[in-house]
Automatic annotation (TrEMBL):
Pathway(s) annotated for this protein in UniProt: Porphyrin-containing compound metabolism; protoheme biosynthesis; protoheme from protoporphyrin-IX: step 1/1
Gene Ontology molecular function terms on file: ferrochelatase activity; metal ion binding
The encoding gene: hemH
Signal peptide: none
UniProt entry tagged with the keyword Repeat: no
Name recorded for this polypeptide: Ferrochelatase
GO cellular component: cytoplasm
Higher taxonomy: Bacteria, Pseudomonadati, Pseudomonadota, Betaproteobacteria, Nitrosomonadales
Keywords: Cytoplasm, Heme biosynthesis, Iron, Lyase, Metal-binding, Porphyrin biosynthesis
Amino acid sequence: MTAEPDYRHGTPSKTGVLLINLGTPDAPTAKALRPYLKEFLSNRRVIEIPRPIWWPILHGFILPFRPKQSAEKYALIWMPEGSPLKVHTERQTALLAQSLQSNMTTAPVVEYAMNIGSPSVANVLNKMRNEGCDRILVIPLFPQYAASSTGAAMDAVFAALEQMRNMPAIRTVKQYHDHPGYIAALAGNIRDYWNQHGSPDKLIFSFHGVPRKTLDKGDPYHCFCHKTGRLVAEALSLSSEQYQVCFQSRFGRAEWLQPYTAQTLEDLGRAHTNRVDIVCPGFVSDCLETLEEIAIEGKKIFTEAGGKEYHYIPCLNERGDWIETLTDITRANLQGWLEPEPSDEVLEQSKQRALAIGAQK
Ligand SMILES: C=CC1=C(C)c2cc3[nH]c(cc4nc(cc5[nH]c(cc1n2)c(C)c5CCC(=O)O)C(CCC(=O)O)=C4C)c(C)c3C=C
Ligand SMILES: [Fe+2]
Ligand SMILES: [Fe+2]
C-alpha cells in the first residue's frame, strides 16, 4: 500500500480528469530507449507470447539491438521541448483544463500520465488522490479501443488503485472512434490541408497495427478503425476508390492486421500513382509512429517505388475542434459528479424517508 494522508472529516471532495497516453522515452538515446522498450515489451497486453518463449527473444535479440535503432529514429523527430508525443499531450492537457474552466461552473483538476515511462499512471493517480480528488474520470487518448493500448492503460489504473486504502471513485472512457466531434475534427483537418495544398488521387488512413490473432480472439480494434475511416470518408464525400484503411508499425514476424501501410505505399508507387496523402486518425498526437514511420519512411517507400507526390497530414494535436471534442467527451462523462450538491430540502426529505423505513421494522 502507498502512504496516504489521514482522513479528515468535512474535506471537500474534488473531481479530477486523467488523460493517459502510451508513453515515450526521456531522451532520443539508446540508454533511455532500453528501459522504455523493456517496460513496453514486458507488458502482457502488448506481447501475448508465453513468457518462457518471449523472455529469451526480448533479452537475446531485441534489447541488445533495438534501443540504438529506435534512438536514431527518435533523434530525427525530437523537438526542442522533448518527445513530440509528450509535448502534444502536455499541451492538450493544458488546453482541456482551460476549456473546462470556461465551460463549467466547477472545473475539475486535469492531469496526464503515460502508461510507459513518466509521469507514471500510479504516481499521477496518487498525487491527484493526495490533493483531494475523490472522483477521477480516466480518458485514454486512444480513440479506438485495443487491449494493447486502452486495455493496458486501464490495467495500470486498476493496479494503482490496488495499492490504495482510500480509493477514489473511478469512471473510464472506453473509446470515441465514432464520436461526431472527433470525426468532424479529422475531416476538418484533412479538408483544411487540401484547401491549402490541393487534393490527392488517394487518401490513406493509417492506423497502428496489432497482431491478427488478437482480432480472432475478439479484440474489436480492427472494426473501430474501419468505422472511423468510413465515417471520415463519408464526411469528405469520398468514394470507396478514393481512400483506403491500412495498418502500420508491424512488430515481429507474426501476421498483423492487413493491409500493411508500407506494402500499400509500395504498390501505389509501383502503379505510378500521382499523389497519395496519408493521415493517422488513431494517434491524436504526432509521435514517432507518424513523424518518422509515416512522414519520412513512408515517403521514401512510395517515391522509390515510382510514386510522385506524397503528403503527410499531421495529427489533431492542438486543433481547436479536437480540444472542443475532448471537452464534450469530458463533460458528458462527468454528469452527476459536478452537478450541484443536493439542497438541504432534498437531504431532509431523504432523512425523513430513511426514518420512515426504520420505523417500519
Ligand atoms: C494507437 C495505439 C497503439 C497500439 C494499439 C499499439 C500497439 C502496439 N505497439 C507495439 C510496439 C511498439 N509501439 C511503439 C511505439 C508507439 N506505439 C503507439 C501506439 C500504439 N501501439 C505510439 C503512440 C507509439 C509512439 C511512442 C512515441 O514515443 O512516440 C514502439 C516503440 C518504438 C519502436 O521502437 O518502434 C514499439 C516497440 C506492439 C507490439 C503493439 C501491439 C501488440
Ligand atoms: Fe505501438
Ligand atoms: Fe513504428
